[in-house]
Amino acid sequence: MTETQQSGKLNSVLRSMANHTATGLAVASTILVVAPLLAIFGYLLYKGASSLNFDFFTKLPVPIGETGGGMANAIVGSAIVLGLGSMLGIPVGIASGVYLAEFGRGKLLANMVRFTADVLNGVPSIVMGISIYALIVLREKHFSAFAGGAVLGIMMIPTITRTTEEMLLTVPNVVREAALGLGVPNWRAVTSVMLRTASPGIITGCMLAFARVAGETAPLLFTAFGNEFWPKSLNQPIAALPLQIYTYAISPYDDQHRLAWAGALVLIILIMVSVTLVRYVTSHGVMKGAR
Amino acid sequence: MGVGIEVKNLNAWYGQTHSLVDINLNMPANHATALIGPSGCGKSTFVRCLNRMHETNPIARATGSVRMGDIDVYKDASPVEIRRRIGMVFQRPNPFPTMSIYDNVASGLKLNGFRNRRIMDEVVERSLRGSALWDEVKDDLRKKSGASLSGGQQQRLCIARALAVEPEVLLMDEPASALDPVSTSKIEDLIFNLKSQYTIVIVTHNMQQAARVAENTGFFLNGRMVEFDSTHKIFTNPSDKRTEDYITGRFG
User: Fold this and answer.
1) Which string of DSSP letters, residue by residue, matches A54-83?
2) Domain limits at B44?
3) How many A/B residue pairs have CB atoms within 8 Å?
4) Which of A175, A182, A187 best probes binding to B when mutated, by most B CB atoms within 10 angstroms?
5) Is A14 helix (H, G, I), strand (E, B) or coil?
6) pLDDT tens digits, residue range A57-70?
7) Interface predicted TM-score of the whole assembly (ipTM), two decimals
8) Residue B139 belongs to some domain of the structure
9) Residue B111: inside a domain
């Protein structure tokens, strides 16, 4: 064996060792990421699944001392508050993201909006809750679903704004030029071509923001407040799953503890179902390129 | 039917860079005009000035006059209207990645608010036949994405998309430079056939290509047009020394 052949062999051993090490590290990191999620979900199943029954989804909470009852009003309430929040957060977030990516390049206002969005993203949720409490609840003199929706919506905005901007910037400029070259007005090119091309990423951003605020408790304490009964008006205090879980979890009764576990399990499942559903529905009409 | 284009004293800038200097050029209707020259000489900037794509770059500006038939491109119409009448095919195939083949071709009509399905079907078929792509894609019009086609097919799809809005002039910025020889010869045949209906301006690095498809050729160098004449004259007996040096391969 010549010297070069020998060193070649040594090199190939080293290379394959490096390869195996890198693959091993990647697999280990994947497990580290997935394990906590599986552990949480498994523990919730273990603690909560036994208390899940038909009543849980259809009945109102019962007074302390009685057994049974459910969280139907909280499930509906959460859906309403999240719906209101999405109606505020998604359009405003996407519109400001479009402004940042398409019309505000290099402008002072755009830089201010971007900075504000980043700061807003880091504001603790309880501070958001107190602000809306001061701005809406104190002024109206009562808690309401509107106030809850407002705080969740505002919390969704920065994430959606920034992902919309990032995703629009990843659309190659040649796609924009293709649209403009056809004699399509700029606003139309942005809404029908740029946004459509970036839509998978933007939808992911919306879902992230949605999933994040779906479990928020602190800001809802100051705004939606919670309610033992069915929601009758958006202008009244309303129940929400995280609030109900919080109330039951800190109560001294075992029965309520079990319901809190079940509520947490339902909350996670509902978030997963809605995210999957939105992904499935919105994937139609957007063709996937085979690149 | 195509219309001629007449360019007078065209100057263009990117920021401080004066990239086109005093261009004067007549491109006759229903002919193909080729623009040749080394990289960075201003050929692409020139065609982008013709349909006012140049000004979509915020630091770019242009002065001078471009007339298309009896319209002054810079005075009488909006850029949007001009781009509808002067179609463009880009260097890299750029189909809309999230749209089907059908939607790509129909996009110029759809995005301008046109809704009649029956007419749209006709336009899509006519445009795809016009770009010699119909037989290859007619079974997958709505099933496949524009981005799933091969590079050469994508470029013919982009030509079909430009034809669908029925322009009078077709600008092609190195339409075959990213393609293999078979696709290139298909595009060249296509250009040859399209001349009967459109005025064609084609930028190319490939001198044989210019000789094959164009009646007239202009030679650009450092932002100036050195020589413009019939293609035959340019390639056999150019009057400027620099043109001769370029086509004989002494530089560029």
Assistant:
1) HHHHH-PPPPTT------HHHHHHHHHHHH
2) 5-97+167-247
3) 91
4) A182
5) helix
6) 998 988 887 878 88
7) 0.88
8) no
9) no
